[in-house]
Description:
Blueprint: H1 2-29, E1 39-43, E2 49-51, E3 55-57, E4 62-68, E5 72-78, E6 97-103, H2 105-108, H3 118-128, E7 133-139, H4 145-154, E8 163-168, H5 172-176, E9 191-194, E10 197-200, H6 210-225, H7 227-236, E11 249-251, H8 273-295, E12 299-304, H9 308-311, H10 317-320, H11 335-347, E13 351-353, H12 355-365, H13 379-395
Parallel strand pairs: 6-7, 6-8, 8-12, 12-13
Antiparallel strand pairs: 1-4, 1-11, 2-3, 4-5, 9-10
Amino acid sequence: MKRPFFTLISISLGLVAGLTIAEITARIMYPLPDNLEGTTMLKVGSPPDFLPDVGTFPWRNSAYRHRVIDDFDNVVHFNNRGLRGPVIPYEKPAGEIRILFTGDSFVEAAQVKDKEAVYRALQGLFRENGLNVTVIGAGQSGWGTDQQYLYYLHEGYKYKPDIIIYQFITNDVTDNAKSHFGHMGKAPQYFDLKDGKLVRNYQPQSNHGAFYYALVKINRHLYLSSRLYSLIKNVWKGGTLSEFAAPTLTQLKPDIHTEPPPLLLAFQDPYSEKYEKAWKLTGAIASEWSTKAHNNGATLSIVYGPSHWAVHDWDEIPSTYPVLQQEFPQWVRNKPDIFLTKISGNLGIPFLSLTDTFRQCAEHTGNRYYFMNDGHWNADGHLLAAKSIYNWLISNADLWPDGHRQPVNRSTIPPC
């Protein structure tokens, strides 16, 4: 019995030693490039999961590392409900006011610490001023109005929010109409308009069990941790060792042939017919969401968070995307504000644009409120948004479903 046991031990030790030598050799001969400026690397832990009826969602009880060179290096943690920060019970204590804050990557806020994110900063402002307000931040990269509404419909309502803040970003319009804007076959479109009525177009499903997700997690961890494994996988897929660069590498700085991102379509004048239809679809989703919220005793509101292009980098658009040089002079910088004001007014949905505040504060302070390479809000941007929203909430009675809930005798605070 001893000989097979020692043979097994010897083989195991030999494999470990061989793999260790191979890993060291791979790292010496094919090191990761040192200069990754202008790139983003997502690392470790959490492939996307699925939330029934909603679609893509962070993997619960997970973490990943998000780094953009010269911008940030952050580890993002998700609790067992797929949200950042501590778990908030569904049951609402007596006397507590709740705000559900939904959005895309700007609300997921992977670029900053959880305590710096807009929803957490907003909660802090309320509590610093003696108000028992809890803010639930529910953001996921890639979500449009569609999946944010579905999240509320199937999960967010359980928190019994009094107010829902839907943070609009201009790429939400094309995210809602994916089948018409370069996503054909790559991403589902959840809603559509048929004869002027909103209809469900796609029902997300996950056919994978726990074993599949365990394999995905092991695979991703090995790919991002082992240079040997990543090299072998790259060659297996048809690449070569000389072509191999960094794992999960995404170029951020566009070249002369790069097509502009969909979020810039919001500034075009005039809009194309299909973009007008995408706006109508967005309005229809917001209308149904507002009705559902009202039936649950909540108020839906829309807050427009402008992109860095609309605040700091407007004049850089034609040089960044040369294909736009001819049409750019006709673009309208506040066109998203104009459209959102019209849509929210027609639907009776309270609306706040952060555009003017961000521009005025940038001019007054000289601060930049967005990361230079990544383009999302930095910590100052999140705080500025939180202060602006706080001032708006305590100053508008229409936002509060029950009159007695509106904070009284509270002063606004300087945003910058």
